[in-house]
């Protein structure tokens, strides 16, 4: 950095560094020790900050955990815009399958369905919100005429993502590229424009 | 019953009555109190039988719980054979949605994904086995020429069932007939025979 570049205020930079360190520690503890291990005290110790700083910034343990999950998943699940609905969906759902294939991704999903009396039930809808962002890929496909005008974008996203979640949570079956391709193609063929 | 009808041996009848009473008590306790509440002792007390009789018949708590779940779900999830793949699938998945819409069905699904150190992990695959029985409906559709010859029957069943499970476990969104119809029609259109 040269002297002529505007530097961020030192306080803001320190705040952002602290935020990243705390969120990384929270994701790490959630993945390795589950909800019960991710107390504010444990996260603060792992991040090397004071517990009071964590409370000052996030207010509650719940806010901290939701912020950690959101930050982690939003960066792991970009929504592509290639101009072709099939490529967009293959890209997005390959990322989701990869994420759910990691120990961390599985832990995050698993703790989303676990009961925890210390947290309000705001964790489940959180995955739905991630998937809501994927709906735009289908909408663009409809607008370009690649898919039928009466396509239900949310339903299509559910039909592709549902089996991925279920394999992790219930059957333990593998997530691979062939599965993602099979699900995307089945759903897309089902949503093709139909002759009158 | 008239005197001329052959009667089941009294012992066998008593054994079957005991089996049903114990399984009903197990399902009831699983639904209302979860895995931790469904101990062999509690089930035996609720069914009015001796704990030793339960151990003599099922051997382990795990076998008892799996037997209870299997009996409950197999009778709640018949696999229709109407001669039309769409009617078969609508019938089957409407039953599944209805089951998952009851407090009992939700509890059974929820405990399938809960960790429990006292049980080996044989509960998840159990749902997959139930769905495996559904695959035959798609196979018959392929044989009748209603669906493309290269249809993957397991994948189609996953694409319809996945969203139902995910709605219960993650999003909390409703399961209704319109959802079942939408998912069945999307998947079936995706599997229609295609012109060469």
How would the blueprint of this fold be written?
Two copies of one chain form a homodimer.
Chain A: H1 10-37, H2 40-47, H3 51-58, H4 61-76, H5 85-101, H6 103-113, H7 124-132, H8 135-143, H9 153-171, H10 177-190
Helix pairs in contact in A: 1-2, 1-4, 1-6, 2-3, 5-6, 5-9, 5-10, 8-9, 9-10
Describe the structure.
Two copies of one chain form a homodimer. Chain A has 196 residues and is mostly helical. Chain A folds into two domains: 10-61, Homeodomain-like (Arc Repressor Mutant, subunit A), CATH 1.10.10; 77-196, Tetracycline Repressor, domain 2 (Orthogonal Bundle), CATH 1.10.357. The first copy, chain A, contains ten helices and no strands. Chain A is elongated and about 65 Å long. The mean pLDDT of chain A is 86. The interface between A and B is large, with 40 and 40 residues.
What is the tally of helical segments of chain A? Answer: 10
Backbone structural class of chain A: mainly alpha
Top-tier CATH class of the largest domain in chain A = Mainly Alpha
Query: From the structure provided, what is the oligomeric state, counting identical versus distinct chains?
Result: homodimer
CATH architecture of the largest domain in chain A: Orthogonal Bundle
Give the topology string of chain A: H per helix, E per strand. HHHHHHHHHH
Content of β-strand of chain A: under 5%
């Amino acid at each position: 950095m040269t002297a002529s570049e505007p530097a961020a205020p030192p306080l803001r930079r320190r705040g952002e560094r602290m935020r990243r360190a705390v969120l990384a520690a929270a994701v790490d503890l959630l993945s390795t020790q589950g909800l019960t291990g991710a107390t504010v005290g444990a996260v603060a110790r792992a991040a090397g900050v004071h517990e009071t700083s964590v409370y000052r910034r996030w207010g509650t343990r719940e806010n901290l955990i939701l912020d950690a999950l959101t930050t982690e998943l939003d960066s792991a699940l970009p929504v592509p815009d290639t101009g072709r609905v099939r490529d967009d969906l293959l890209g997005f759902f390959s990322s989701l399958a990869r994420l759910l294939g990691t120990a961390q991704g599985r832990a995050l999903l698993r703790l989303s369905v676990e009961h925890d009396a210390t947290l309000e039930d705001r964790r489940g809808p959180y995955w739905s919100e991630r998937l809501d962002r994927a709906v735009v890929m289908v909408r663009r496909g409809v607008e370009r005429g690649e898919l039928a005008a009466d396509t239900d974008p949310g339903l299509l996203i559910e039909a592709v993502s549902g089996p991925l979640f279920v394999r992790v949570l219930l059957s333990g079956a593998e997530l691979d590229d062939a599965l993602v391709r099979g699900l995307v193609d089945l759903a897309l063929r089902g949503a093709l424009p139909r002759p009158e």
